[in-house]
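Let us work through a complete example step by step.
Step 1: write down the sequence.
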Amino acid sequence: MDPITFSIIRHRLFRIVDEAVITLKHVSGSAITNEGHDLMVSLYRADGSLLMGGVGFLHHLTSAAEACKSIINKFNSDINENDVFLLNCPYTAALHTSDVYLVAPIHSEGKLVAWSACFVHVYDIGAMNPGGFSPESLDIFTEGFSSPGLKIVDRGEIRKDVMDTLLNMVRSPEMVALDISSMIACNNVARDRMQGLVKKYGISIVDEACSNLIDQSEDLLRERLLELPDGSWESRQYFNVKDETYKVILKMTKSKDTLSFDFSGSSPQSKYGINCSKWASWGGLFAPLFPLLCYDITWNEGVIKPIEMKAPEGTVVNATRPAPVSIATVGAIQAVNNAACTCISKMLSASDKYKNEATAVWHGSHFAIFMFGKNQRSSDSIGILTETFGGAAGARSIGDGVDVGGEIPNPISRMANVETMEWTFPVRYLFRRRLKDSGGPGTYRGGAGAEFAITPHDAPDGGINYVVSGKGTSYPMSEGLAGGYPGAPSRYTWIKNQKKNSDRCLSDDLLVGSNSYEGDKENISWGVFPLFGNDYLHVRWNGGGGYGDPLKRDLKSLEKDVNEGLVSENAAKEIYGAIIINGQVDLEQSVILRKNILNNRVRGGGS
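Step 2: predict the structure and record it as tokens.
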């Protein structure tokens, strides 16, 4: 078709998605949505296949396609203009019950021409624990309301019976209603703008442009794969829940213009909610694939066609119903993300043309702290501390990772400012800062993670409760690359303080396990805990993985890291082989030390 018309339609599709995202954020009243950007909006073809993937959490682009296809099969002849359907069953398409999809058909002249789909992590889903993360759930039946598909808007009218039923099963129904309303508004905007596009150019022209756009993406990805070397690459992810260790094993094979992901050998499904379903793993591997291999290619069905996946049933990456999955997004799915990122980056590193696109793992453990209780205004308050979206970038072959630099699976993630969190919950932040020695050592250092501490403040009930679902405390999950070390693991410390001490910040001694700070310290990682009285919660989250041998890091860069508080003098000496005293690097002694460390390696003496 005419290339100018094609280009105009392509850009209009981008703008439709962008405007729908803006609508979703403006209507939503949840910080996790409008601050953290835990959302997704995309367009789909009439058959449910992905047409235009939007920003937000990229796991959902392919899963929402399955949601559209499921609705098409389920409702068939009962799909009308201005309908909206809801789906949040993890064993049908969703990632976990809290991630509610609203999908809407788009008609023109009475013909179904496309679908729009969006999701947010709803304020509450009626699970065992407020907010939806339920570490104590042993099956999906206690993880909240779950639907394989129902019609929530019929021909433009909200079905009051359906809405009343949903709101009757959740805490804070007014906030859940706002979440659902924001998604309905989002789909309305997408439908209106898509209908305007079709009206201007005609059904056949827009359909041809959409078909060509998918073909273009497939051709571009296959061409890129042909430029990359054939071979197989492997990655392993370990994570712990209580005293049990789970693993996700990935072997990625590239042959000509196809790419296959094989998760055989991964652990059997868990009794805990860190499992994920097949479609969640499918979306999980695409979350890093889209930005790493398709950064200049439109994310649509054409990108999906050259990809295959094998995920054995009954494993943590393809659990069978009714296994619990409420922690999936920061559990097995995150491990799938990390493993796929590593394998793809290993392949890129093997190419002279694309080696600069390779990256170590970003934000490997993706901790999550959900809080629930009464806020300062004596209203119910449920939500996540948005620091989970702060992340830490992995290092690349051309430079250090960005400190607190987000995450690959969500290009627009961010954390809210401290004031927003203190307004949302009855807590006071003692500090929030970059974490020393957290970024993975390497020729290029992984981005630093961060740490914060909070204590109850102006809480009508004396405090608030919180859910910790933090695997990744025993094993570092932010893998390094090309000899780089992993980022430091996360840690959660409950300080039980009997004395009034609210004006004092936690000392750095806490980080090294000193007993100089008043209060009993307990490392926690899984479950529901209280934050009451004068207690503190101290959270440190992982840094990004490093890239390359730490002994090859530029000494002046290390000197700067030490002076900025990102690397300790001890770590500079023991890991990087650099002598830094009083902020000054001793070049001569550092060269000698590095030679000694390297000689020790050759003799088999470790690092």
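Step 3: interpret the result. The chain has three domains: 3-219, 367-548, 553-602.
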